[in-house]
Amino acid sequence: MILSLFADSLIAILGLISGLAFILNTNYAVDISLQNKGRTMKATANLQIENDRVIVKEWIFAAGEETEHHVHPYDYVTVPLASGVMRIEGATGTKDNQLVTGVSYTGTKGTAHNVINTENYELRFIEIELK
Are the beta carbons of 35 and 41 closer than 8 angstroms? Predict the structure, then answer.
């Protein structure tokens, strides 16, 4: 009898948790929608190496995330870890940059821009700044 009551209570609690998870996921989707309409969703930069010669970061962009406007203090090399389109907003306008996994490109000191993931999936790259 006690075991049966425990099982019934556990099933009820799991049902509540399942319902709560659905509500939280729905709210999360709404929040992302609101962020895309005016709030910044910031990409994540994970510092891997910093010494007297280089700074190496892995950048992770969920769909719609961006770096926000920034100026590069050093020349840099970017190594895409996934293929996709990143939108670049710079002083001379906006352009879409096609990333190809493993195909590196360079940038120069003083480059000022915002980088935005326009894909509906995560994009990543390694950025190596040359001091």
Answer: yes
